[in-house]
Design a protein that fits this description.
Elements lengths: L4 E3 L5 E3 L2 H9 L5 H12 L6 E2 H11 L2 H7 L1 H6 L6 H13 L3 E9 L4 E10 L2 E8 L10 H18 L3 E6 L5 H10 L2 E3 L9 H8 L11 H9 L5 H6 L1 H7 L2 H14 L4
Parallel strand pairs: 1-3, 6-7, 7-8
Antiparallel strand pairs: 1-2, 4-5, 5-6
Amino acid sequence: MTQLQVIKRSGEREEFDPAKTRRAIMRVGVSDQEADAILDRLGQQLYDGISTEEIYRRVHDLLDGRKAAKYGLKKAIQRFGPDGENFENYCARIFQAEGYQTRNRLILDGKCVSHETDILMERSGKKTMVECKFHNSLGTKCGIQCALYCQARFLDLAPLNQLDRIVLATNTRFTNEVVQYAKCVGMELLGWSHPVGEGIENLAERHQLYPVTILEMPRSTQSQLLANDFILVNDIVDKGSRLSALVPRKVAEDLESQANGLLNIV
């Protein structure tokens, strides 16, 4: 399998790395034996020049319902689009689970001009500005121009608003240049697999904060839920009366069943 060339979303070709696929499978809670069995079955289906998107679909089909849903976390976050507001709300919920008080989309005066901050959060008397960069394409990395822009805004806002730090959050990965720059200027990063072991997918798993878009539903239902501030799967469980007022009874029952299964609620 390691001699196969796969085509990434960017169009680049690289050698297939079964260890990378195994890590993605293990993240959803399968055993070592299950992971081995899935990789064996996957290996029988691979061919030279297969796309990473096709590999994703085949692995997804080899997982059972709950684990398949968790495997689709990255795509579920992408379905928050096309704009970034839902992703900002999702990030705020993650930071709340980490013990922060958050406020979204505030207009703050800077030393030179005013800015709208995506998230302003506080914990232990420290104020943090969070800038969220949402990408509609999972193959797109968060680049240096975004980091430079965010740092410039932070430097303008920090003196008048007693800001202690800035976090740049994205739903994809960062370029090496961004990681190097952030380390140099003291910017914190939150993205897919970054920081190692503390990336956005790790925090989602730790707090069981799965996007509502991870559930199977028509696009129209998804749009209606997001428009009414159903951001997390937890909201399906916690806002049952509101859910019934938004969608037909059978749809609500199906969503509640999926939500309970994913959150392991009996």
